[in-house]
Amino acid sequence: MSDTHEETIAFVRESEIPAAPPPERQAGAIRWVRDNLFSTWFNAIVTLVALYVIWWLLSGLIPWIVNGTWEGSSVLECREILQGETGGCFSVLRERWSQLLFGFQYPPSLHWRPTLAFALLFVAVPPALFFKLPRWMLVFTAVYPFLAYWLIWGGTIITPVFAAIGLVVGYLVFVRVEKRSFMLGLFAALVAATVVWWFGGVIADEFSRVARLRPVASRAMGGFMLNMILGIVCVSLSLPLGILLALGRQSRLPVVKGFCVIFIEFIRGVPLITLLFVANVILAFFLPPGTNFDLILRVIIMITLFASAYIAEVIRGGLAALPKGQYEAGDSLGLNYAQSMRLIILPQALKISIPGIVNVAVGLFKDTTLVSVISMYDLVGIIRGSILASTAWSGIYWELWVAACAMFFVVCYGISQYSQWLERQLRTDHR
Amino acid sequence: MKTSVLFGTLAFAGLAAAGASAATLDDVKARGKLNCGVNTGLAGFAEPDASGEWRGFDVAICRAVAAAILGDPSAVNFVSTTGKTRFTSLASGEIDVLARNTTWTFSRDADLKFDFVGVNYYDGQGFIVPKSLGVTSATELDGATVCIQTGTTTELNLADYFRVNDMSLEPVPIETEAEARTQFLAGACDAYTTDRSGLAAVRVAYPNPDDYVILPETISKEPLGPLVRHGDTEWGDIIRWTYYALVAAEEYGITKDNVEELAAAPGDNPEVNRILGTEGELGAMLGLDSDWAKNAIAVNGNYGEIFADNLGENTQIDLARGLNALYTEGGLQYAPPFR
Amino acid sequence: MTTMTGPPRADGFRIGKLLTDTRYRSYTFQAIAVVLLIVFFGWLVSNAIRNPVLQQSGIDFGFLSEPAGYEISQQPIPYTPQSSHLRAAVIGAINTLIVALLACVTATVLGVIAGILRLSNNWVIRKLMSVYVEIFRNIPVLIWILIFMTLSVNVFPPPSAFRGDDPDATPVLGLMAVTNRGIYFPRPYFTNGIGQVPDAPAADGDDTAPEAQEVASSANWLIVLAVLAGSFFAVRAVNNWATVRQNATGLRPTTWWMTLALWVVPLALTLFLLGLRWDVPELRGFNFQGGILARNSLIALWFALSVYTGAFIAENVRAGILAISSGQTEAAAALGLRPRRIMGLVVLPQALRIIIPPLISQYLNITKNTSLAIVVGYMDLTATLGGITLNQTGRALECILLLMAFYLTFSLVISAVMNAYNASVALKER
Fold this sequence. Notes:
The structure holds 3 protein chains of 3 kinds. Chain A is 70% helix and 1% strand. Chain A is mainly alpha-helical. Chain B is of the alpha/beta class. Chain B folds into 2 domains: 24-120 and 225-325, 3-Layer(aba) Sandwich (D-Maltodextrin-Binding Protein, domain 2); 124-223, 3-Layer(aba) Sandwich (D-Maltodextrin-Binding Protein, domain 2), CATH 3.40.190. Chain B has 14 helices and 14 strands. Chain B has a 5-stranded mixed β-sheet. Chain B has a 3-stranded parallel β-sheet with strand order 4-1-5. Chain B is globular. Chain C folds into 2 domains: 57-163 and 295-429, MetI-like fold, CATH 1.10.3720; 211-271. Chain C has 13 helices and 9 strands. Chain C has a 3-stranded antiparallel β-sheet with strand order 1-2-9. Classes of the chains: A mainly alpha, B alpha/beta, C mainly alpha. Chains in contact: A-B, A-C, B-C. Chains B and C meet through helix 1, helix 4, helix 6, strand 10 and helix 7 of B and helix 2, helix 3, helix 6 and helix 12 of C.
């Protein structure tokens, strides 16, 4: 064969041609630009329009940021420094920074306390968020809420310590009694915890000077700190409540189911602001006359109820998405309701629900700004009610709103990025 | 079985309800603090200063009452209330007395069941406009856009005034003082209306106060005063007479500086002696110590001194006494006899 | 849940069985739950009953029929300060619905466009849309409302800037005045047609002013609406005819000029016959007079709700499109459809099924978020009934109950209607 080959074909290449680079216009940046930006005439026009919009935005924004000044203590001084050039008076942020963060009533000498609590947040939260960290670090996560309470509100350390002990005792009792009956365990745990808390209350009254930080009243909370407190507390409280509501809605007991359905549909049918009005205006009618419990506490209760209804719906979706076989598997193994829920159903349902829960959490965190409508001085309230009204900074608003946007954006964007990461981590199916 | 449990529960709930609420005075004494509802922040009337300490004309009344009852002017919890929450806070018992420049009106008294114990400030509603608008009288405001803070009687007065004068009105309801300021300064409304005391306070805070003028008309009567719940008359009496003690103190020349001196040695004016507790048992009639009025006056001085410190001509707000002068000087402040 | 291994023992009922026997246990739990609920609510109600002030003033909705006494700026139905609180509340409710409807429409349009463009093959557009979605989704809507309000108050000129011989600002095209009180649009009205208003206000012979001419009643808009409906059905008929032709001959006749003519000609004719005129806003006194005023509170609220919710809808749309398996797209491409037709004929109709349920909840969110109108002074229900009426009458309990009842009813009705629609478009599975 090879002979014929030689005869019939005049030239045969013996070696492979090295791959030539593609033509200049078909590769690299130019190719990419052509494919992605100017593939059709319509695409080209759209690209140009988009580029113009971007240029227009940046050409307004960049000089404003670059020329902006951080000096001066009033709008007049700031204008003087700028000398008529475009630029932001970021000095308002420097000057009112502590108000934006802590509100105007938190004693300035104590600002280190919420700051420390915030810093510790970064130690307490990662063990719960990232599974690769050593498990023992979760201890700190468990301690953190009590520590943060003590740091922010002050008072004797006995109060949070006993609050924690009450929980621990309750849990231990539950573990002991649970073997006999789940409900009995729950009840016994509640009783044990209440006893400890009552005892702790007596002790705390008696030794109110032990390890005492200067107490700060709830109504002194303000600024971004208030948003963070409301967001974190309400999300953590509404999660267990939401799970209970979701289970209740699936329950076979008509009373429990009916109550859960009515509760969830009611809460989801009204705007949060009306619930805040209830907390602010009419809740006091329904409490014993003379009880004067904090507005912040009332608001926390209302926002928690609000969020739990939404979380319940997300978890209900997760529960519904589980194949029926999972429920049947639990039953066939002879697990009772509590066991099959805890060991089989909920771990899977919660995993499915994570993106939804995070969405609710982010939404809730954003909704904490609504407390400004009931004249609480959160970040928005401080800007609307206090700084915009001040004579020294009259006519300054963009700097403040941009700062507020930036703070919320960082937190919310961070959380949603984390949830996407977590979703990838938890993906256990085969792809 | 279920029904019996149900009835048992209801009986329990009823039992819990049976504990009648004690008199407000006893509550306050037991608590050791007076819960006083004030404005969220209005220059001159109630405002936390840089260190978070509450100051102002209404605040001074709260402190005087606390001093009269508890002997300690700092034994006050100041609860800031909005236009929306003030009445429910009082009605629900969250606060004992509301001193939040609240206008005394018929319906608030008769329908909402509150007792106004007196008028600590006679006010009236006015307008502020930019000078460049060229308006010199409120009657020229036909068709104007007017900013109003919601939740006050000013809204009703404004609508009434424009209707009576057959003018059309474009109202812009505003939630906070800051927004009123922004909108008014930007020209989004032609005029801004509120109580004249408030107008004076906001005008001084504008960048160029001289570019704005307060129109001469006063379109309403705004008697502002502290109020308490209907039904606890003894408690109302305490607030009322503490306030009158301040007014009477001005009339008889009792001041912050000389009150101790006058109380130490009974003078020759029996009325002063009765007020300061050196003669008679007025305090006991109210259920208070005999030096109640002395304590109240010692905090911030008499009515005139409180006015001068918070609203008067030496302050930024720069208000004349006007109707709020004593009756002896042509005003309306008049304390009934202490006897 | 339990398995009986033997026949149930025939012993009678004992108290202990209430806890141990699963047959009775559920009743025990429910009885406990009922009792706890009754205790709790009984406690709440008993506190309210014991309240000294509530005891005297009682719960009384009579205030609704009393004169409201305050002025409302945006009045879709006639209202004076002498009208009742109930009427003020109704106006508030209508205003709520107006802004909710406007925002739902624009948010959907914005969301669908942004959602599709996020999947565009144009890199710049894709990134721009991602930035839009992320920025608006991650910042509270309250801040957006306040920002847009600040923008409209401080960036646009006050009406006084339009005054004088050499004004700082002039109306756009001489027709539309953009001020920091709102945007004044020209208002169309008819001079012929049914229901002539006999004595139009300006009988002083000045026939350049719009009032000088005969003004026909606004019922004439019904005529216009009827004509538009006629055009709609005519266009549908034309399309059906074209489809029939296409099925018969394989060629689709060109119909765009017929469609255009069917829409434009009858409308133009009707408007001409009715004598359409434009009432152009004019600066008189303190404000522009005439025309339609879209107040800046409405615009700020509408715009903020639209762009905020639009970002969420964009995500829903994107998720819906991505959920359609690529086999569908490839099959359509194999049939020779061009990308835009693939989107319109194959992907979107299927994606719609996935998009609609979250879209419903976005609409409900918009409606609930309109309650934030209170921060910009837009007179919605929260601002009238839950705001000024509450403040003026002090009837907090009654006002807030009514307020919640309105939103609750509205939400439940909308979700019922939307769920019914959703069920009708859902994939029928057997």
